[in-house]
Queue: 3 jobs
Job 1
Amino acid sequence: MALYLLSIYQPDGPIPPPEVLGPIMEDLAALNRQLKASGSWVFAGGLHPPSTATVIRVKDGETLMTDGPFVESKEHLGGFTIINAPDLDAALEWGARLAEATTLPVEVRPFQHDGAR
Amino acid sequence: MADVPSSEIERVFREHYGRAVSVLVRACGDIDAAEEAVQDAFAAAVERWPATGIPPNTVAWIITTARNRAIDRFRRESTRDDRHAEAMRLYDADEPELEEEGAVRDDQLRLIFTCCHPALATSVQVALTLRLLGGLTTTEIARAFLVPEATMAQRLVRAKGKIRDARIPYRVPNASELPGRLRAVLAVVYLIFNEGYAASSGDRLIREDLCADAIRLGRLLAELLPDEPEVQGLLALMLLLESRRAARTTAGGAVVLLADQDRRLWDRELIVEGQAIVRQCLARNEPGPYQIQAAINAVHSDASRVEATDWRQIVALYDQHLAIAPSPVVALNRAVAVAEVDGPEAALALVEGLDLDGYRLYHAIRADLLRRVGRRVEASLAYGAAIARTENEAERNLLESRRRSLVE
């Protein structure tokens, strides 16, 4: 078994209205239930918008902070799910279901070894 | 029997490389380790074969030697992952000396599907397939695709790293995934063939080596997947196209179009083989794009003179192609056949509506049709558009001479 990070990329901008977001959240909850039932679920969470982010750098013992996300872009990481899967095919299958549920692109990326524990 | 030249040893290893590596990948659980092991076996062969001659069961010798070397290596290098050493030991205890033919075939299929996994970019799938199944060196693949060797080496290292770290599985897809995954495999093989058949850039039209490699891979697939009609169709298509190689260019390297080819130069043996496969496909009656394209080429191969071509049959085959897999390129090719049945005016009407502005052959075919209906100015412009989109020197020369002939 290996750990995979499933990152959801979201366009910046206003949060979709409830009639759009509602069904998406329902699909997402159902997917998380299935992930848990299959024993593949490790962690999942959605993030506040990139405007809430702070980037920290430490240089010569001094902490520097900048307001906003690390990369200026039209899309940002909107949330992620960490799963346990036997191989990439299995991880891609969950990734495809996550992309379908969220209607957003999902990046699937393996952790080194079994992740830092 | 002694005194085997090293070029012969190289040839033998290239021929059996894919088979040996595929077995070793399963044994070692790692592509790099498998390649190292086969490389070790090659070094052993260079040392021994000149004295002993090539062993009768060559593949078994290579696999056994490579496996033993891999085990030595794992034992020596304690830094390696213990699981790999464990896997090797288990494998060593389990397997008889000689690889069972069926098991080797399964391993080759696993390797093919790993190399052509959809999580890898097409250019990467092509490079991996040529390297691991075709046994080509990185230098040869780099040369074939006109990229610097360092770039190709990096591409292969990155690909093998992704297969290992992301755990792209080493297995044959199940029945429900197979059609889609097989399409990707066939596309890779046909891409290799096409790059050889009409080199996308460079000064020569044909790169024979790549065509031969693609046909070799096509034969392997046909042997491994005898019940997949499209696999057979692709092999037949490549054989029939390859049969015309000697007639497709002049001694000076200029392009000769199908209509102008000296058909006595066609390779009868390849035609007979390709047509026999097409007949088997027809009898099976599970048509697909490759089978239909093969059938179209079989019709061309039947005609000893261009005037004897059964164009109606070809139009009917294109109709079938459009019905099962519609695409503007197929519609364009159909129009070429329509021009022979209903005249260039009718064909031109079909071509005008197609959304293929970026495709050089669209402009070349449109130019020819415009020339035939006497619309010279437009024809000249269309040849210009085709020339602007052609990277291949030989093809460009042909288009330029056609454009010049408009004013003569």
Job 2
Amino acid sequence: MTTQRLPLPLGMPDVGVYPSKLSSELSLTNAKQQECMVMPAPTGSDIGAETLFNVPATYVGTPKLVLRGVIDGTPANVFGIGAQLLEVAAAATVDAAYEAEDVASNSTWTGYADEEIYELSITLTPAAAFTVGREVLIRYYRDDSVDTQTINFLLTELFFEFNDA
Amino acid sequence: MATLTNNSFRYIQAWVNSQPAIKADFKTWSLSRPTLQAAFQALEDYMVGGFSVRPATSIRAAIEAVTGATTAARAQSFFAAWVAWKLNNYLGGG
């Protein structure tokens, strides 16, 4: 059994979250034009994006959502991420509520600084075990009830992590 | 004086993000959101409620005192962001 990572599209953003490139957001000496999704600190409500993926044929268990990006500011305080999912079978409606949120946070920034890459994993707890081949609609966001930062997070990669057979 | 709502602070945050020099000033500061929001509220209270009182030293020093800004640049950044928010309120009727 090995741990696999399935790259996911960053998805459609909420108002206030927007696609950009690293050099447009950071004052870099060495330009970097890589795409990122700017996730500002929340101010009174969760703010993020929504995407989806197909449960891989090799999926066995231990599902996680992994956010990787660049810190846009001197890191301090609490960085909090939430995620909600909805697994949908073929010929089933997407018009159903997301399940209860899963959260992850970090408030220890030793070793991290402005313009550095940071990664945070959220352990997903689906109401029923994922079924291979089904669609999983997922919403991820900076959690207003947890996050106390004022700096942006520049999301560059999003993964569905899982253990295979 | 106005109470800064979450929408107010969201506007300020977006405006700061659109101004590279001011953003650079704020992002090295590592303030928590509640602290930063309280500082902007203190600035609003001072500018509207206490502005008729001549500051003991300077407006900049007064801004530093109410916001906790520790440098002149930060005080100026605070002031600029506050002005942008007030203009948006007046011009947009917010």
Job 3
Amino acid sequence: MIDERHLELIHGEIDGENSAGESRELNRALDSSTECRALYEDMRRVADLLQEAKPVEPPRQLRAQIVGALANTLPHAQPRPASGRAGLGWLSMLRPRYAAAFAMGLLVAFGTVSVQRWAGDAELDVSQLTGTMTQHQALGQATPQRLVIDLEEISGSVVIRDQDPLLMVEFDLSSAGIVEVVAAFDGSDARFNGLAQRQGEALSVTAEGSRVSIKNQGEQQLALFLSNPRNGAMNLELGFYIDGRLIHQADLNHAGRQ
Amino acid sequence: MRDADSELVTQCRSGDRRAFETLVQRYERPIFNAAYRMVDSLDDARDVTQTVFLKAFEKLDSFDPHYRFYSWIYRIALNESINLLNGRKYVTADSDEQASDWKSPEENLRTSQVCDRVQDALKTISSEYRSVIILKHFLGCSYSDISLILQVEEKTVKSRLFTARQRLREALSDSELI
């Protein structure tokens, strides 16, 4: 039977917590007690095996996801909004990979979204185009692609930021009435990856395939995250609708990273 | 490096978001690994890691600068992992999740026999004992660090470590590693 003192010295030695004097005391015990030595060797072997278990590398895109989510969290220098206007910050309490889906499911449950719209009205009606504002400049990838919207019905900006391997599409919009913004992305392997909101409360958000629809009213700041595993070029086609009528269309291009 | 954390926290509190990104870069790996050892799922470890940083960022104002940042964020990480494990008791499809879409290079790192057996052995001990093993052997915390993180006395830390290693020895001997 190993006494408490020697037990503490054995584990203290393995944990690197023993003083020089305690190490000497342990060595004397190990020399005189086979039981102590056997336990010490067993515990040392356990510690060595734990040491041998190599660290697991985090997923390559994890840091970008975290930083992207932080970008849509209120900065500390600013006062926090009242809980009723805290946007979807509480979504961070959910398991992140389910948060966006949960938000969408919740909104659908409230009946504010017609997912059917995608099935029956999947293609944009180009006959109703009233104008196109397009930015096709091949800007360097360090420069975010920005689209400024200045219409009577809706104003603000949409920005694409490259956060390798994610793309973040930031919407900063203001509209008096309800405006539906449909973002369709193509030309790459990009897929909808998540949603975060800094300000406002989206009336509804739906995502299906390579299209995301947001209904906006009032001031709203939110970000869509798109996975872009091959860093390929992507065209983001934005349509702005009121009561199903297309009032404006614009494109944003992400040139990709070759 | 850890002493520089307080400076980064101060900068972040002043509104410098980049400072927090530096903390993410510094602690992403240990927190992901700690979470993985706790919850035994790469997908869940990813979720826990993301939640830890979001919570830390949101609660940074409540962080007491007299404490070390790493002990604070490790505590959040363990609590988040334990919360997930507690929630998982009511989920029956856990094994299905393990076989989900994770076929990435990260998954391949699990192929080490020792790594797998150590992970299997960790699963056999309670989260209370797993926590001290992770803090000591994977995060390199001292007894006083662990005491602070778990908010228990040092003698309790030692006692838990002794018992945890004894139980790991039994589990590892079953797998013929000892």
